Amino acid sequence: MIESKNITEVQLDIKKIRADFPILSHKVNGKPLIYFDNGATAQKPKSVIDAIGNYYSNQNANIHRGVHTLSQEITVAYENARSTVQKHLNAEHAHEIIFTKGTTDSINLVASSFGKKFISQGDEILVSVMEHHSNILPWQQVCEERGAILKVIPINMEGELIISEYKRLLTDKTKIVALTHISNTLGTINPIEELIALAHVKKIPVLVDGAQAVPHMKVDVQFISADFYVFSGHKLFGPTGVGVLYGKEKWLTEIPPYQVGGGTIKTVTFEKTEYADLPLKFEAGTPHIEGGIGLAAAIDYVNKLGLNNIAAYEHELLVYATEALGKINGVKIIGTAKEKASVISFIVEGLHPFDIGTILDQLGIAVRTGHHCTQPIMQFYGIQGTVRASFAFYNTKEEIDLFINGLERAIKMLN
Amino acid sequence: MTIEEIENEIVEEFEMFDDWMQKYEYLIDLGKSLPLIDEQYKTEDTLIKGCQSRVWMHSELKDGKVIYTADSDAIITKGMVALMIRVLSNHTPDEIMNAKLNFVEKIGLTQHLSPTRSNGLLSMIKQMKLDALAYKQIS
Predict the structure, then answer these.
(1) A287 with A319, same domain?
(2) Which residue of B51, B73, B76 is in closest CB contact with A370?
(3) Is A183 in the same domain as A266?
(4) In chain A, which residue's Cα lies nearest the Cα of B120?
(5) CATH number of the domain encompassing residue A83
(6) ipTM (interface pTM)
(7) Number of domains in chain B
(8) Which of A327, B56, B81, B91 has its CB surrounded by the most CB atoms within 10 Å?
(9) In a mutagenesis test of the A interface, which of B49, B53, B77, B111 is the best target, namely the one with the most A β-carbons within 10 Å?
(10) 3-state DSSP call for residue B36?
């Protein structure tokens, strides 16, 4: 059971915050929208929507190498967006920030490029049972291509990594560890700093999937000493189609380009191409310019609220919802780690998550049902799927009350 | 009754419902009341893979007509499956292949046919028609 933490007193004006998000005043199936699917994607504040609109209305030009004014101005804006991400993650250099399509794209990039350079026959790559498929499949593919072996860190019934097993699995053959910071299904917050330190003792680099972490907490990549840290813009209240790969300079310099083409070069002849320095080496083609601009606007927005305030408030929502769910007969929460983010997965005895999700949808309540792209977790617990409610700072206890009412109604209808 | 006549009959039944709750309660009752498939046919082979709710479907040809039986682990899906069987089962392969199934839209349940992989229903209809096509080619 999660305990109430005495973190800083919450200083967010939720009513005012909600007014920043146009979609939150919508009705779905005739009912006010209750959006509890933030783990899948978060809603966008007006400042992000405006930044994207403004880009197309007033700023549109292609970045880099243009001599004309618009091109120069948007290049500055795009590189400022990179600096915003750098400062947000406390990366040492702006060129350690690579813009990608999203978390999945970032992981594919590292798996492919790191794999080419450092993985060979008989090597091992270490992931955990609680990874999203996006942090399993790219590594599985590298293993198949290069004859390496995928090793898996087990979890306990609470949904926490078993650290002793992790230590045992870190061997001389391990070439890289890929771990999620927060589980999208269980809500577990992994002790990432400790996990990275353990790998570094053996000089093994670590990639952290931060997709679920960056919307909920302050992340300092130098403090945790992540070798690679990846996340998506759209889960951080920014646009879809843009994401980030942070990598330590030495790794990004050593691994080869992923996709190549326009923008990634210094000189090209048919005999040989000299590739550009970081970050352009990894950014082939015209990038998602308005995505970068929109992501920077989103980061500015959450920083205005303060990530510590956000974390404290979301923890209140988590505790409140966990207690309320615990009072409903037949409800079993999947994922009861001591350290949890505002993600609650549960099953209801005898009922299919799909049926529950369908009834809740009729009541205007958006939750996610199914395996959440984490089938190994479902196999571990021996279940087909769960219902998942994931909260953001614009959600309220009143909404949780309505969700609990709706759930009770669904259970009554389905039984 | 023709397929279209059965569809119209269902549309009329649904017109009696005042709100979504009655509609879903009806589907849930349908789902609960029908033992749809012989357990021996509930195998990997008959499983139609949707993303969330699983649907098993079996068909056989009797006197020139296709007989369908099916089941699902989700009760609302099972109710929808029961409606599909009521409409399509016991008709000739040609009739099944030509069925438009407009009733789904008329009873306001189109979201169950959206291709979001959220349930196996759309795949099931496709499989029902494919089976009908296969029987037509045999005979």
Answers:
(1) no
(2) B51
(3) yes
(4) A354
(5) 3.40.640.10
(6) 0.88
(7) 1
(8) B81
(9) B53
(10) coil
